Amino acid sequence: MKDLSQLDVKGRRVLVRADLNVPLEGDVITDDGRIRASLPTIRDLAGRGAKVIVCAHLGRPKGSVNPKYSLAPVARRLSELLETDVAFAGDVVGDSAQSVVAGLGDGQVALLENLRFEAGEESKDDVLRGEFARRLASLAELYAGDGFGAVHRKHASVYDVPQILPHAAGGLIVTEVEVLKRLTEDPARPYVVVLGGAKVSDKLGVIANLLTKVDRLLIGGGMAYTFLAAQGFEVGQSLLQEDQLDQVRGFLREADERGVELVLPVDVLAAVEFAEDAEYEVVDATAIPADRQGLDIGPRSRELFAGKLADAKTVFWNGPMGVFEFEAFSGGTRAVAEALIRAEAFTVVGGGDSAAAVRRLGLPEDGFSHISTGGGASLEYLEGKTLPGLAALEA
């Protein structure tokens, strides 16, 4: 895979596929982590005299223009972080985009409107997607793939455009791939993976693959209740995927056969309702009252999980341990994050809600070896899948 140092970019129009899919409340960005992660590549290209054309998606507007998903707030924040004006195009490949690109001088930066306002971006029809890709590619002379959070999607800006233009991987993608190779090819041991989040079904492939590679697997979050139910325990009103029980029983058997230590919560915070101020009590994870739901791992589980991380040499963490957005139910996620910070290990936070939790809880980002920008992409890589965006960059 070429990196950007191998491209002569001075005076040339470079299309940068970034991942700027940030959370918004109205037009206020609540977490600018993905924008900040894109800065090194943009600065590198601008500093070398490229005319930088950034493109990205935001949310799921489903192929039509929706002001709710405009990248205008992102353009403003990008301007602030770069400390220079970022020209914003009011469309993706139309008159505004063409005018903005034509007006760029060497070292200047522009941002196109949301790629997903164009139906061709996500189309499963190769012809329609290819037509949009050609229009997008016509704006530039070179392509830099730097949106790691989107490389698992076979989208026009991720997969088709690099087949049209001379291309290279941006620094963010190069770093992400190096980290994931370190997790998959010869990890220092003990190798511990912590998985949380809501649904087992979101992580079936990664669990199946990791059971062949890890020494210890810690399960928290909403998905833990399906594991507990698979062992025959009462989980009350907790999140439960009954259609996954047989699959989970298979995981439990395989972990036992392979000698993988699979660790589940031993106590939980059981609440009367899903609410920030809900009344709750600490109960054994094996005896959750029928009228309550687990919203976080309990104090004994936090101590247990921290102990299982203490001797680790490699740790991958993806998914919160509870409803961390609610202060009362954020303690489990904080405990795991702080255990990673204390560990003398190569620690990787697998993007998505885990990365958001680190920032929301005010934890030092430099306390971890790497915080990924790509939750879904990281998981699919760890499953052993071929990621379309990476395959296109390697061609």
TrEMBL record:
<feature type="binding site">
    <location>
        <position position="153"/>
    </location>
    <ligand>
        <name>substrate</name>
    </ligand>
</feature>
<dbReference type="Pfam" id="PF00162">
    <property type="entry name" value="PGK"/>
</dbReference>
<keyword id="KW-0547">Nucleotide-binding</keyword>
<comment type="similarity">
    <text>Belongs to the phosphoglycerate kinase family.</text>
</comment>
<dbReference type="GO" id="GO:0004618">
    <property type="term" value="F:phosphoglycerate kinase activity"/>
</dbReference>
<keyword id="KW-0067">ATP-binding</keyword>
<keyword id="KW-0324">Glycolysis</keyword>
<feature type="binding site">
    <location>
        <position position="325"/>
    </location>
    <ligand>
        <name>ATP</name>
    </ligand>
</feature>
<comment type="subunit">
    <text>Monomer.</text>
</comment>
<feature type="binding site">
    <location>
        <position position="116"/>
    </location>
    <ligand>
        <name>(2R)-3-phosphoglycerate</name>
    </ligand>
</feature>
<keyword id="KW-0418">Kinase</keyword>
<feature type="binding site">
    <location>
        <begin position="57"/>
        <end position="60"/>
    </location>
    <ligand>
        <name>substrate</name>
    </ligand>
</feature>
<keyword id="KW-0808">Transferase</keyword>
<dbReference type="GO" id="GO:0043531">
    <property type="term" value="F:ADP binding"/>
</dbReference>
<comment type="pathway">
    <text>Carbohydrate degradation; glycolysis; pyruvate from D-glyceraldehyde 3-phosphate: step 2/5.</text>
</comment>
<feature type="binding site">
    <location>
        <position position="153"/>
    </location>
    <ligand>
        <name>(2R)-3-phosphoglycerate</name>
    </ligand>
</feature>
<dbReference type="InterPro" id="IPR015911">
    <property type="entry name" value="Phosphoglycerate_kinase_CS"/>
</dbReference>
<dbReference type="GO" id="GO:0005829">
    <property type="term" value="C:cytosol"/>
</dbReference>
<feature type="binding site">
    <location>
        <begin position="19"/>
        <end position="21"/>
    </location>
    <ligand>
        <name>substrate</name>
    </ligand>
</feature>
<feature type="binding site">
    <location>
        <position position="34"/>
    </location>
    <ligand>
        <name>substrate</name>
    </ligand>
</feature>
<dbReference type="InterPro" id="IPR036043">
    <property type="entry name" value="Phosphoglycerate_kinase_sf"/>
</dbReference>
<dbReference type="GO" id="GO:0006094">
    <property type="term" value="P:gluconeogenesis"/>
</dbReference>
<protein>
    <recommendedName>
        <fullName>Phosphoglycerate kinase</fullName>
        <ecNumber>2.7.2.3</ecNumber>
    </recommendedName>
</protein>
<feature type="binding site">
    <location>
        <begin position="351"/>
        <end position="354"/>
    </location>
    <ligand>
        <name>ATP</name>
    </ligand>
</feature>
<feature type="binding site">
    <location>
        <position position="203"/>
    </location>
    <ligand>
        <name>ATP</name>
    </ligand>
</feature>
<keyword id="KW-0963">Cytoplasm</keyword>
<dbReference type="GO" id="GO:0005524">
    <property type="term" value="F:ATP binding"/>
</dbReference>
<feature type="binding site">
    <location>
        <position position="116"/>
    </location>
    <ligand>
        <name>substrate</name>
    </ligand>
</feature>
<dbReference type="GO" id="GO:0006096">
    <property type="term" value="P:glycolytic process"/>
</dbReference>
<dbReference type="InterPro" id="IPR001576">
    <property type="entry name" value="Phosphoglycerate_kinase"/>
</dbReference>
<dbReference type="InterPro" id="IPR015824">
    <property type="entry name" value="Phosphoglycerate_kinase_N"/>
</dbReference>
<feature type="binding site">
    <location>
        <position position="294"/>
    </location>
    <ligand>
        <name>ATP</name>
    </ligand>
</feature>
<feature type="binding site">
    <location>
        <position position="34"/>
    </location>
    <ligand>
        <name>(2R)-3-phosphoglycerate</name>
    </ligand>
</feature>
